[in-house]
Amino acid sequence: MSAPTIKDVAKLAGVSISTVSRVMNESKPVSPESRRKVLDAIKKLDFKPNELARSLVMRKSNMIGVIVKDIGISYMAQIIRGIEEIGRMYNYDILLSSTYGDIEAEHKIIEFMCTKQVEGIIMISEKINPEILFKLKSKKIPFVRLDKFYEYTDEHTVSIDYKSTCNKMTNYLVDEGHKSIVFISEDVTSRIGREKLAGFNEAVAERKVKSALINAKDITVQTGYDMGEEIFKLIKENNSTVVFASEDTLAIGFISYCYDNGLKVPQDISVAGFGDDLIASIYRPALTTIEEPYYDMGAISMRKLIKELRNEEKLKDVTILPSRIIERGSVATFKKK
Predict the structure, then answer these.
(1) How far does Cα 229 stand from its chain's mean position?
(2) Do residues 109 and 99 touch, judged by C-beta distance below 8 A?
């Protein structure tokens, strides 16, 4: 037996096909009696509308495209979770695809998502090509870009204030009694690298404590480990008691170096990080760090995008979220009792 059609619904309800369409799409007013008849007929026939055809007509798919560099990156997975859970609350599905940093893949994925009638796009990247931004803007659909490393111009995004947050962590370390700090800085050609370094420098200048700087070539655990000998040279030269890494991965790598070389954290040297990656809480000693609210970044991005689609609230260029220090076991205190 063939599946019932909209014509069957109209015939059973004793109304026109256009009336059935109005009830289903809530596009125009329909009398209460006609509405009741249509809904009753839909229930009796167990009518299932063709959602693809409906979305093409209505230009409304209740679907958001999510383009991510790599779902295997832990913080990106947390962002996606926030996007998906808020989407479900508003009856929106997500269409997810990873690019692995391939620009040709990014072009193809954007085109594919547009053919699927996505109503908006959230792009989670670590560096985006200007061509891709131009392509996104040319599609004339709302989009949010989440990229914590590079500059924003007129794009919509959700982030934290890296400068003030790094300043806050530095002040926390000084308040714990640390008078000489080694700071592991990430790429200062990136927005995040410049802001974190500026926050650190501002705090040590204000508190008049000693500091030393070392630049990391990237932000992997292996890099943090490989820099261990050089970091300890700075520690000895400056009588430093704490190492503040601009990313958790660098901090974890350095802690591993300490373990392999018979040095105890925090007894011999304290270590602090930035990000609150999953590994920060399960590594030993658990890492004192700054929480980046990745789940909230995804959740708020999705909520703002949906509000834009519903004409409830316009997307703002940048939404800044609060962050906090997570105190764990990797930082010793020298405060006077």
Answers:
(1) 33
(2) yes
Domain count, the chain: 3
Tell me, yes or no, whether 143 and 39 share the same domain. Answer: no
Q: Which helix (H) or strand (E) holds 67?
A: strand 63-68
Structural domain containing residue 192: 162-291
User: CA–CA separation, 183 vs 228, rounded Å?
Assistant: 13
Residue-wise pLDDT for 36-47, tens only, equals 888 888 888 887
Residue 171 and residue 287 in one domain: yes
- State pTM to two decimals: 0.75
Residue with tokens 């299932």: 48
9, 10, 15: which is closest to 44 by C-alpha? 9
User: What is the number of other CB atoms lying within 10 angstroms of the CB of residue 124?
Assistant: 28
Does 212 map to a domain?
Answer: yes
**Virtual CA dihedral for 254, 259, 264, 270, nearest 10 degrees?**
10
Residue 56 has pLDDT above 70, yes or no: no
Does the residue 331 lie in any domain?
A: no
pLDDT in tens, 150-191: 665 556 888 899 999 999 999 999 999 999 999 999 988 888
Q: Could you tell me the two tokens for 206?
A: 């204000």
